[in-house]
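User: Here's a chain of 282 residues. Predict its fold as tokens.
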Amino acid sequence: MKHDKSSETNEEYYPMIERFTLFSDFFMFEAFSRSEEAVELVARIVTGKKDLKVARYGMEVKRGFPLFRHVRYDLFIEDTENNIYDIEIENEGRSLNERAIVYSSTLIAQRMKTNEKFESLKDTWVIFLTKKDMEKGYEPYYDYKWLDPKGQRLLSRKAAIRFVNGQYRNDDAFGKLMHDFHCTDPDQMYYDELREIVKYLKKDPEGVKIMCDIMNEAERRWKEQARREGLAEGRAEGRTEERENMMRKLHAKGMSFEEIASITELPLSTIKTFFRKQSKAV
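Assistant: Prediction complete.
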């Protein structure tokens, strides 16, 4: 990676940025927030709607009513026909079914306006891009529908839930998209819309500086949280649950074991042992 020395900040982040993919939480957020073309490309492929046009999009927290659980959407989209989509980037695969139901219900509840007729409800989509093939069927995606117990009558077509298989690699739109989501080198990507924004954030001096600033602030917040939880000072006794939650969160954001060890200031051997036990428990 070539950089303009005059703009260098935090060179220790360069190797991390080089390893980032679109499955990496912070990198994905920054890439899509800067490219409507990339958002529209992904939305068209994962829904199969070739004519989908994005009216607005963003990464936002929907608070809903005071008693509702706050939901943070990875990528919230509204198309020109007022249909709405929540696209979630998922590295771990924990409680996906339950989360899908919560996200779908929240989208619908927030979409309906006061006194609006129920039959006017537009389509809502909750789509998880899962890093692994969660159903192990080697299909490009898995759809879940609202059916009666015998599976003979469809309750509604308005609320779609889809899990996209991140390990799918056939020579089609889904296979190429998932290849690009796993790709660390933008020059190896199929889609120009993704290649352009990823190349900017990984190889352009201005884009690299943006990522360095983001990682610097994120690490500051992580370490502050770790200190509050007694991790950084070695006060792990009685803090097992907090420590494990912290490691899971960082791993879900695409961090390597080495990066997690650096941020939490825990031994690398501790990190590796924890995730080895986690993989055996699944």
